[in-house]
Automatic annotation (TrEMBL):
This is YbgC/FadM family acyl-CoA thioesterase. Belongs to the 4-hydroxybenzoyl-CoA thioesterase family. Its EC number is 3.1.2.-. NCBIfam families: YbgC/FadM family acyl-CoA thioesterase (TIGR00051).
C-alpha cells in the first residue's frame, strides 16, 4: 500500500517550482478555483519542468516518444482563490520502463492546497503502444533529481 500523497509532498521537497497566479476565468461565483483547473496548473508546471531540463516535452521527434497521461490523482486540502499567487512543485522520484510518474503540489505562502500524482506513459508515436522511456529523458531527469 502506498502512503497518502499528503505524507510526502511538502513544498520544500521539490527541486522545481513554477509560479501561477489565479485568473478570474478560473474561479467559480464564490471566487474559488474550479477543481478542473488544478490539472491545467499541473500540466503547465510539467511543461516548464521539461523546459528547465532543455527538452520540448510536446515534440515526439526531440524527446524520443509521445507521452500520454495514464493516471491522474488529486487530493484537495484547501481552496485557492482569485488572484492568489500559487507555487507548483514538480518531482520525479523514479522512472519505470515506460512510465514517468510525477508527484506534484500546489501551495500558497507555504500552505499546501492540492497534492497530486500524474503518471505519463511513453509510447511509440507511430503505433501508440507503450515504449521504454528514452535514455535522454532518463539521464536528464536523473541528473536533475539526483537519483
Amino acid at each position: 500500500m502506498t502512503a497518502p500523497l499528503t505524507e510526502f509532498t511538502m513544498p520544500d521537497e521539490f527541486r522545481f517550482h513554477h509560479p501561477i497566479r489565479v485568473r478570474w476565468s478560473e474561479v467559480d461565483p464564490y471566487q474559488v478555483v474550479f477543481n478542473g483547473h488544478y490539472l491545467n496548473y499541473f500540466d503547465v508546471a510539467i511543461t516548464e519542468y521539461f523546459r528547465n531540463l532543455g527538452m520540448r516535452f510536446t515534440d515526439p521527434a526531440t524527446i524520443g516518444g509521445a507521452f500520454y497521461v495514464r493516471k491522474a490523482t488529486l487530493e484537495y486540502h484547501a481552496p485557492a482563490f482569485f488572484d492568489d499567487e500559487l507555487r507548483i512543485g514538480v518531482r520525479v522520484s523514479r522512472i519505470g520502463n515506460s512510465s514517468l510518474p510525477f508527484t506534484l503540489t500546489i501551495s500558497r505562502a507555504g500552505q499546501t492546497l492540492v497534492t497530486g500524482e500524474l503518471v505519463y506513459v511513453n509510447t511509440d508515436p507511430a503505433t501508440r503502444q507503450p515504449a521504454p522511456v528514452p535514455e535522454t529523458v532518463r539521464q536528464a531527469i536523473g541528473q536533475f533529481e539526483e537519483f
